[in-house]
Amino acid sequence: MYEERASRLPGAVVWTNTPDASGTGRVLPDGCMDLLWHEGRLLVAGPDTHAQLTEGTTGAWSGVRFFPGTAPALLGVPAQELRDRRVDLADLWPASRARRLGARVGAAADPATALEDAALALAADTRPPDPLLRPLVTALGAGRPVAAVAGELGLGARQLHRRSLAAFGYGPKTLARILRLQRALRLARSGVPYADTAARAGYADQAHLARDVRELTGLTLGGLLGG
């Protein structure tokens, strides 16, 4: 069972998940990075460009999902180094620092809240993220064209691409594509017909939506929604 709630860290989500008996799951790309706790291990989930399968994974998971672009500053690693990867925190931090945090989370009655506390402490001790990231994500998430958003933010194409790689793990066009997928999934899950979903989410047509969903998730839209 998957459950989530808004975090005390602005824009973040605290979640827990216990896979079903088969231990299978599919994590869809969403522009985010996560700090994870699973069976005594602290992990960082990098930004995904395609669905990640969790087949064979058992046991409860806890995590903090950071607002797109904010995790690299908190964790001290550029996002592109973690693209499509799941990495032990001890491989990114000094081992002693990672062990101390792991001991605190492991001793907590609620690992998810302990992870949230750790994220809040990191935010308090870290310089704020690039101030242009949030308006960039908001504009692309609303379907604004990349070139138009770059112009509004006063960024050239190369500068925007470089800053996007460090913050999101990929360029702004890939981010826009992933956010468009998430926009379409929200519409489809609310009952909007697929053709209307495609138009409202910014796809050329329903066939374009179908191709993008298949390429990014490995399933059809109906398969994702259980229909």
From TrEMBL:
Taking every annotated instance into account, which residue ranges of this chain make up the domain HTH araC/xylS-type?
A: 130-220
Q: Which UniProt keywords apply?
A: DNA-binding, Transcription, Transcription regulation
Extent of the signal sequence: none
Domain of life according to the entry = Bacteria
Query: Which protein are we looking at?
Result: Helix-turn-helix domain-containing protein
Q: What organism does the record attribute this protein to? A: Streptomyces nigra
